[in-house]
Amino acid sequence: MKQASAKKDVVLIVDDSPDTLSMLNDTLDQAGITVLVALEGAQALTIAATITPDVILMDALMPNMDGFEACRRLKENRDLAHIPVIFMTGLSDTESIVKGFAAGGVDYITKPVKGDELIARMRAHLNNARLTLSARVALDNTGSFLFSASAEGNLLWATPQAYHLLEDAGLNNAWLDENLPSQLRQLLAPHYNRDKGLLVKAVDKPLEIRYISQTGNDEYLLQLIDMERPSDLERLRAALPITERESEVLLWIAHGKTNREIGTILDMSPRTANKHLEQIFRKLNVENRTAAAVVALKHLPS
């Protein structure tokens, strides 16, 4: 029986130099990578919206829309913001490097590009992006009311369940754009006691926003709480002799996640997740993950 071939990585190269495009195309093609090409920023955004690449190699200086602006616009699109952008340029001054990272780039390499180094860096960022995306899909599929925001209070992404809860509370897109940032800035301010959460002035039902963790240089993971119904975490804590953090780990065990996936979702190391799991086994008097998941599922809505 013939095995299906592995899916090839897709890389979008954005550069107006024919020599650079030719060199990169040959290098990536030899590495078994599918190559898409754009000659300037606006064209890159159009291509990315049509055929989503796994990673983007972006020249900084181009005619019309430069790479910095193209990257900023890419990160504003919820469907494309997860794509890692690696800047390529002949510039090596500190100001340009900082500008690239500020626009949302994950790495910065100078021309002439060294093929082996580029492939190694690209593979590393691809693995990290896939792990992050896998965690986000897990959050989406398990009904978690989670979202992330910048320090300025701008909404970066949210699970479908979080959007539905906001709609149920009578909060439309106009409210999210005009009122949510100011409330989130209050919660994310250094002096604010993040343990107590923040009540949201909603129209149809009371909501609370709770701080979970900082997941990036300018990204914070937050949770929406429907004040009219208990959350799965509250159900587990009420029914079982475990701590709040242990209940978070147990919830993801019940959803079949590995320690590595749990670490990504909860912003902890796999080793820390395993230590919490050891305490859960002891407190629940079980011997393995399956038994712990069965105990948890007995207390969760089907």
TrEMBL record:
Instruction: Give the source's domain of life in one word.
Output: Bacteria
Classification via InterPro entries: CheY-like_superfamily, Sig_transdc_resp-reg_C-effctor, Sig_transdc_resp-reg_receiver, Tscrpt_reg_LuxR_C, WalR-like, WH-like_DNA-bd_sf
Q: Which GO terms describe its biological process?
A: regulation of DNA-templated transcription
Q: Give the CDD domains listed for this entry.
A: LuxR_C_like, REC_PA4781-like
Can you give the residue ranges of the HTH luxR-type domain? 235-300
Query: What do the Gene Ontology cellular component annotations say?
Result: cytosol; protein-DNA complex
Keywords, comma-separated and alphabetical: DNA-binding, Phosphoprotein, Transcription, Transcription regulation, Two-component regulatory system
Pfam families for this protein: GerE, Response_reg
Q: Which residues form the Response regulatory domain?
A: 10-126
UniProt xrefs under PROSITE patterns = HTH_LUXR_2, RESPONSE_REGULATORY
Carrying 4-aspartylphosphate, the residues are D59
Question: What residue stretch is flagged as signal peptide?
Answer: none
- What GO molecular function annotation could you give as one example from this UniProt entry? phosphorelay response regulator activity
Q: What is this protein called?
A: DNA-binding NarL/FixJ family response regulator
- Taxon lineage: Bacteria, Pseudomonadati, Pseudomonadota, Gammaproteobacteria, Cellvibrionales
